[in-house]
Structure formats: C-alpha cells, structure tokens
Amino acid sequence: MPATVVVGTQWGDEGKGKFTDLVAKEMQLVVRYQGGHNAGHTLVVDGETFALQLVPSGILYDHITPVIGNGVVVDPRVLIAEMDTLAAKGVDTSRLRVSGNAHLILPYHQEIDKVSERYLGRNKIGTTKRGIGPAYADKAARVGLRVQDLLDPKIFTEKLQVVLKEKNALLAKVYNQLPVDLDSILAEYLDVCRPRIEPLIADTVNLVHDALEAGQQVLLEGAQATFLDLDHGTYPYVTSSNPVAGGACVGAGIGPRHIDRVIGIAKAYVTRVGAGPFPTELFDEIGDHLVDVGHEYGTNTGRRRRTGWFDAVMLRHAVRLNSLSEVALTKLDVLDDLDTVKVCVAYELDGERFTHLPYHQSVVHKVTPIYEELPGWKTDLSGITERKDLPRQAEDYIAFLEAQLGVPIGLVGVGPGREQFLHFAA
Fold first, then answer.
1. Its pTM surpasses 0.85
2. What is the rounded CA–CA span in Å between residue 18 and residue 24?
3. Element (H or E) spanning 204, and its range?
C-alpha cells in the first residue's frame, strides 16, 4: 500500500497537526520523519487542546502506531514529559515507537545553541534555542549520539566522554561559559530517561516496510515547512533538516516509489517566526488583525508571528518542490471580517516580473509583491461543513487560489476544532 506525505508549504505554523490528525484516522502508522521539539502542533479534540512537539499526531487514535523516525532529533527529557502530559489526559503512549537511529539532543547542544545565537547579534537566525541545529551539526560531523546508544551504557559513556571534551573546550574558550558536567548527563540520560525510552526503541525502517507490505496505510508527517528546508528554504533562516516531501524518504527509510500522495498544508494567509525575507508581510492594522484573530503566537515559544497576505509565488514553488497532489487550506475563517482579501500573484523588481520564486536570496529580500484583490465574505465560516454553504466570495477565493497553484484544494479548515473543516474538491 502506498504512503502519504503531509508537508507544510510556507514557513511553518500552517496547521499541519489538525489536518495530519484528520488524514491519520485512515492510517495504521503515522511517522514523524524530521525535526525536533522546535516544531509544535496543536490539536483541539472535543474542546480539549493537545499541544504536541515530538509525538506524532496519530497518538490520539487507538488503532495507530505512532513512529518517531530516524530523521528526527530527540531530547528524551522532552519526550518523556510530553508522554506524561498525554497520559494525564488519558492518552495511551505505549504504542509509540522511536527509531534507534534517531539522534539525541544533549544539554551541550542547547548551551551551544543559546550562546552562538547570542554572539550573532543582529545577524541571529531566530533559532528556538532548543539544540536542534547543533544536534544535526553533530550528526553531519559524525560525532552525534543516537537513541540506540542508550541501550549500551558503556558505549554511551565512552562516546559522551570524547565529544564532551571538545564541546566543553568550545564553551569555555570561545563562549566563556561553564563546562557541562559529564556525570549529570549520565545520571539523567541513563538512570532516568533510559528506563522510560528503552521499551519504545525499535527498528522503525523494518516496522514501516512491514506495514507497507501488509497493505497498511502509512502517513509520513513533516515538521516545520518547505521554506524552512535546509536546502530549499530562505537560507540561512531555515531549520537544520529537510521538511520537503523528499525528506520523508530519508527520514523514514523508504524509497520514493512507496509514496503516491503528497498533501501540502497552506494557511489562507502567511506567517513566519524569526528573521528572514517575507515579501507579503503586513505592518498595518490588518497584520495586527490576523495576529489577534488567528492567535498567531508560537506553540512552543509564545513568540508573535509575522503575518502577511497569501503568496501564490511561494506556493507554486512548493508545489514543484514537493510534487504536491493536493493542498489543504487552513484558517480561512480568520479572514471572515475583512472587506477585501489580497493574493500575491507575482513579484516585481526593477521592472522585471517574477511568477516563480527567484533563486537569488537578495532578490527575494527586495521584491515588491503584485496583488490581486478579491471581495471579502463578511460571514462567520466557523460552523460551515459543506462547500454548498460557503458564501460565494469565499468559494471564489479558494477557486482563485486553486487556479494560481495548479493543484486542487481538497480540504478547507474553518476553525481550530477537529470537525471544523469541509471538503472543497469536487
């Protein structure tokens, strides 16, 4: 049975959690394939809010095996805390499986993340300071510790001793920081975390392939989004992994022939957190309105998000990068009170018009967005569950986006609740 990928198409915070949860009910496995606990997603089920960071969205369905794949970086302390929070709400986390090849985030990764960002000053990237980037850097440098190392305390200790010598020298001599204590890490990771994590560690590559070969449905869930991708995003204001659909193959351990559906999640407007170019960014009362009505504050960090109009130039590029088969549009209801809504259909710079994303970063920083303005619907959409009940203006807006992107919009979100959506595609 082929697999399905769900990927963010903007700068994250598109509402992937809700639609992943919605698609997940048809699945038997939900696999998180990259990122770490810098990616929060929120689900509202029967009025109760679940804020997840590492645990895949499928955890809320009893029939699903949630899998943290090899492409994820894992802070076991955060994972355990998240599992305990879920358990307190009556959610069974014993079905969770964690790849033995996933890399560990350790305390020195977080220390390095914090001080290096501070030293960058006004050139800082806007990292969440959770150690994600330094953990991926160690993975690439082949000095990282993996989840499977927890199963062998002797190996874990030996590897940690070697790498900590280098990290403490860096912290002390470059950043003038206190060293990280070896014994405290060993006590926390081996004595406290290991007993909780060990029953969950698995060969997740074989787990996924066994499911596919048995004809089961597998969902591959990305964190962050297309334009935070290390290779294809607005570098260097990106994450340290590959959220694009192609990253699902590496991060879950399957080949591209196993994937036949790629769902791109897009917000009905655009937001981003941290620094970096943002052609359609709004600095007026409409931007404030989108923040207030859309509750545009980070799930993990609480940081206010930057807001702007829907950018079809970005989305066309996301369609190409991910081979999107369809788009799910979220937060359409946030636009309910606006008299008109705008869509960026192209960029302009020095008389040149761009309908696809310019490859040169300096150009992206300087472009002026070219907008099409459409009438608003001035109607509360939050209770609508069928396309036929949409106001004509809202239907026209969605149809206009479809025409701009060249792929169908299948699902439309009209509120945060699990059931607040409608099918738009014919």
1. yes
2. 10
3. helix 204-213
